[in-house]
């Protein structure tokens, strides 16, 4: 239970309507600012205030529990300031607004002294989250918008992205798929801002499992991935501008494979570390040559 250090003004919940907006609580009234003296905190509060002013007023639904009291501003034991409803144990309950010493602001529903239900949190750095809460954590459906324009819309579990979601990072790369423990995990697709595209499986935030990667110039790899790298013997369409079927190790051509260059030249044979290495057949418009290659150079016929 939060310990009350200062309390001003109370109203019985029986006189309140079933719907109210955040303007009822006026989180930026003088009583809030007078308790924060440091200039750094005032700068942080200004950031939060600007974000708050840019958003639609937060709406509260449902009536506060019978017997709860609207109170505030209240200085809590962690020096945060709360304005809203309290139960007879002085627990934050139902509708309320709280501002922390770093300027972060929450407006929404409370239960047993914790954020629970619908709510909006604006963080000191300008990020904000609006959606469902449980046990003081983001839980259920919600939207997180960051000051660098990154955005996530989808499901959360215990404060982390979990389940189906849509994510845009600061570089405007777009992921649509499933998450686990805050990371891309399961099936999904990425549209990269540079025009590349991936569709397939993910594990712990990495391209892992079966998937297809397509470059904006039309090249395409279909096969297996491990820790963001191609690893299996599979089809690589248009690697370096050509077509090949090779054994991929650390994103390089290794083992037997066929590679066709954009100008029509083709080499069929053994590869090592991305170079022709071993027996092979080299074909051009002028004809075909067979022989042995070492580090990309033919050493004999």
Automatic annotation (TrEMBL):
Keywords: Repeat. Residues 1-25 are annotated as: Disordered. Residues 7-23 have a biased composition (Low complexity). The keyword Repeat applies. Coiled coil: none annotated. PANTHER family: RADIAL SPOKE HEAD 1 HOMOLOG. This is Uncharacterized protein.
């Amino acid at each position: 239970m939060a310990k009350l250090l200062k309390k001003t003004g109370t109203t019985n919940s029986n006189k309140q309507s079933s719907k109210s907006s955040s303007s009822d609580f006026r989180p930026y009234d003088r009583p809030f600012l007078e308790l924060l003296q440091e200039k750094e905190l005032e700068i942080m509060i200004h950031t939060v205030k600007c974000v708050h002013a840019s958003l639609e007023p937060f709406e509260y639904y449902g009536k506060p529990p019978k017997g709860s009291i609207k109170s505030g501003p209240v200085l809590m034991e962690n020096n945060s300031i709360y304005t809203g409803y309290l139960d007879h144990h002085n627990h934050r309950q139902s509708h309320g607004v709280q501002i922390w010493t770093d300027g972060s602001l929450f407006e929404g529903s409370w239960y047993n002294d914790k954020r629970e239900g619908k709510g909006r949190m604006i963080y000191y750095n300008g990020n904000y989250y609006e959606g469902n809460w449980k046990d003081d954590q983001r839980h259920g459906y919600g939207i997180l918008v960051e000051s660098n324009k990154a955005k996530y819309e989808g499901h959360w579990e215990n404060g982390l992205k979990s389940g189906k979601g849509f994510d845009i990072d600061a570089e405007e790369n777009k992921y649509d798929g499933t998450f686990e423990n805050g990371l891309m995990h399961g099936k999904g697709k990425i549209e990269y801002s540079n025009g590349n595209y991936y569709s397939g499986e993910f594990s712990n935030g990495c391209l892992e499992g079966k998937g297809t990667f397509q470059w904006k110039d039309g090249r395409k790899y279909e096969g297996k991935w491990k820790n963001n790298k191609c690893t299996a013997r599979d089809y690589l369409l248009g690697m370096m501008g050509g077509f090949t079927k090779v054994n991929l190790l650390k994103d390089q051509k290794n083992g037997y494979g066929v590679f066709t260059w954009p100008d029509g030249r083709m080499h069929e044979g053994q590869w090592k570390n991305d170079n022709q290495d071993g027996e092979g057949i080299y074909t051009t418009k002028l004809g075909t040559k067979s022989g042995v290659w070492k580090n990309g150079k033919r050493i004999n016929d």
